[in-house]
Design brief:
The chain is an alpha/beta fold and 334 residues long. Helix 7 packs parallel to helix 12. The chain contains 12 helices and 5 strands. Helices cover 51% and strands 7% of the residues. The chain has a 5-stranded parallel sheet with strand order 2-3-1-4-5, with helices on both faces.
Length: 334
């Protein structure tokens, strides 16, 4: 018995419609798979970018600034840029201006700097000697510093405590009223201008070992050199402050973008200048340079200067250098 023609047509129509619906559903599923793959890839890219930004925003810089090395000028730039570049600048003030931190204060400072997430990225600065974060159980921050010709720094400080500077001209310094020249002080062999007092930059870079505080200690000098190369991101020289700022802007633009332009076009190029300072006589210079303390301090300066020039050569002069990744295996498919 044959079905009516209308019945066959209806069955055929139902079959065609059902087939189209199945094909459509298959296409929808394929489209969903593509969308899911695209979303997964996008989410992975975003997650990777967020991880990279988090790492970038975890940056902590320690500037254990040596006195009378143009540190105020440099820190002034950082304070001016911090709001614009969205980072924090914090001054670490140590009781009685001590350059040596007690062990418990080293630990607490390292802990706070590491875990104070709300302050990151951050630049911490203060007049204290280098100390080792990993030794205390914390990740190493980025250390930076400036070093100055030792005799120039010594003379600058000698007159600074007498006459002050143009940064805070009304502040009375501890030697106010004492107008004795550096030449006369050296000639009279007074304790204040004893060449042993030159022993400052070596201890700052040497650290907190007992030998670091002993004037003329050869181990301390060797340790200071080693730290400059292995534990500091960058050590510049006061006499080439502009290049120091340029290197930091190139290396850490997240924090120092615009630093060089600000330095060149604002009043930050020489923020603190001693009001009165006399050039020492050749006789005085000869006496100071005969001291083994000056010779060791100057050796550290020359070492730092040579290393700074090496870093500068391969950063400022070779700006077209590129680093690319090749022959990556196994291949990664986005």
């Amino acid at each position: 018995m044959f079905l009516p023609k209308i019945g066959l047509f209806g069955l055929l129509l139902i079959f065609v419609i059902s087939s189209l619906i199945i094909i459509y559903q298959i296409q929808i599923l394929k489209l969903h798979d593509k969308i899911y793959a695209l979303e997964s890839s996008l989410n992975e890219n975003v997650a990777t970018q967020n991880r990279q930004e988090k790492i970038h925003d975890d940056t902590v810089i320690i500037y254990n600034r040596v006195p009378k090395t143009a540190s105020t000028s440099f820190v002034g730039i950082a304070y001016d840029l911090c709001k614009k570049n969205n980072f924090h600048v914090l001054h670490v003030n140590v009781t009685a201006n001590s350059h040596v931190l007690s062990l418990n204060n080293q630990f607490e400072l390292a802990k706070n700097v590491t875990h104070w997430t709300a302050m990151k990225p951050a630049l911490y600065h203060g007049h204290f000697a280098y100390f080792d974060f990993p030794k205390l159980g914390f990740p190493k921050p980025l250390y930076i510093n400036l070093i100055r010709r030792p005799l120039d720094r010594f003379i600058s400080y000698y007159y600074f405590v007498r006459y002050g500077d143009n940064y805070r001209p009304y502040l009375v310094r501890k030697k106010h009223g004492n107008t004795m020249s550096f030449d006369e002080c050296v000639a009279r062999k007074l304790p204040e201008c004893d060449p042993n007092n030159l022993w400052l930059q070596v201890p700052f870079f040497c650290g907190h070992a007992a030998n670091c505080r002993k004037p003329g200690n050869k181990w301390a000098l060797a340790e200071a050199k080693k730290n400059i190369v292995t534990n500091y991101l960058l050590v510049g020289v006061t006499e080439e402050l502009q290049d120091f700022i340029s290197l930091l802007e190139i290396t850490i633009p997240r924090m120092f973008k615009g630093a060089l332009d600000h330095y060149l076009n604002s009043n930050k190029s020489h923020l603190r200048k001693t009001i009165q300072k006399e050039v020492p006589s050749e006789k005085t210079i000869k006496i100071i340079k005969e001291s083994p303390i000056w010779q060791m301090e100057n050796e550290l300066y020359d070492f730092a200067l040579e290393y700074f020039h090496f870093v500068k050569k391969y950063t400022l002069k070779d700006r077209n250098q590129k680093v690319v990744y090749e022959k990556v295996r196994p291949k990664y498919t986005w």
